[in-house]
Every structure is written in structure tokens, then in C-alpha cells.
Amino acid sequence: MEPRLDLLVINPGGRQKIYQNLGANLIAVEPPLWSRLIAGFAIDHGHKTEIIDAEAMEWGPNRVVEEVEERAPLLVAIVVFGHQPSASTQQMAFASELCAILKNSNKKRPLIILGGHVSALPELTLRNEAVDYVCNGEGPET
After folding, report:
1. Listed residue (46, 108, 107, 50) closest to 79, CA to CA
2. Which residue spans within 3-90 are E strands per DSSP?
3. Measured between alpha carbons, how far is 73 from 19 in angstroms, rounded to an integer?
4. For residue 79, how far is the Cα from the chain centroid?
5. N or C: which terminal CB in the chain sees fewer CB atoms within 10 Å?
6. What's the rounded Cα separation, in Å, for the pair 50 and 99?
7. Helix (H, G, I), strand (E, B) or coil at 17
8. Contacts for 57-60: CB closer than 8 Å, 24+ residues apart
9. Model confidence at 31: pLDDT above 70
10. How far apart are CA 73 and CA 71, in angstroms?
């Protein structure tokens, strides 16, 4: 399949997995600021880019994979950030599951993951997650 996109940026979310029943009514859905920053940088540099906000859409990993397959990007970026300091580590539970399913669906499509947790533990993240690359530090330049 011919790639339609250069980059597909995914905000994985996962509040159902993190907060269980509390996630439905008591947890705010944050705008995916870091996803937008990464995507905006890529667009500004001439790359065809889209964002999937799985958090806002309340999509599970299988639905995200369907959307990724439909868009056929050259690179998928999983952006695991949040507005409070430990949010990226909490979101790794869903992000990890999503990465494994994405990599299983297409082993040749490269995945990069970024966020506070990834920057704090880049080598461990690269070893433990089904990704090809980790971004240590600022995402846009990388």
C-alpha cells in the first residue's frame, strides 16, 4: 500500500486502563498539546502529517490500529505526555499495549515513542517496548 502520510502522531490516552471506572466521568480529557507541537513542526517542514487523539475519541488499541492501517503512514509517533509530572508514566500502560498491537499488525512500519517517561528511561523503554526508536528530550527536533 502506498503511504498516504509521512507521519501519524498518536495521543494514546488510556484513561480507562489507568483509572478504571473513574475514567468515564471524573477524569478530564486534556488537549493533546505535545502531539500538536510535534505535528505542527512536521507540517511546517513540509511533511504530510495527521493526529489521532485516541483519548478524545475513546478509541481502544484495535480501533487505533484500524485507523493507522487506513492512513498508511511512513512513521508512527506515539506521544505519551500529560500536564502533571507522572502522567506519561501512567499512560505507558496503554501506550505499551498500543505499540505491541501496532508492531504486530505491521512489523515493517517504524514506531517512535516520546514523552516524559521515555526521556527519563530511554534505554529501558527501547528494550521493553515494541518500538523502533525512542525520543530522548525535545520531540520536534528529533
Report:
1. 50
2. 5-11, 49-53, 73-80
3. 31
4. 4
5. N
6. 18
7. helix
8. 58/13, 58/16
9. yes
10. 6
- Please state whether beta strands 49-53 and 111-115 pair in parallel, antiparallel, or not at all (unpaired): unpaired
- The cell numbers describing 1, all together, are 500500500
pTM: 0.86
DSSP sequence for 82-98: -SSTTHHHHHHHHHHHH
* Residues 60-99: tens digit of each pLDDT: 889 999 999 999 999 999 999 866 666 677 788 889 999 9
| Cell numbers found for residue 96 | 505499551
Q: Cell numbers at residue 78, please? A: 506515539
Handedness of CA 90, 25, 37, 103 (dihedral sign): positive
Name the DSSP letter for residue 81.
-
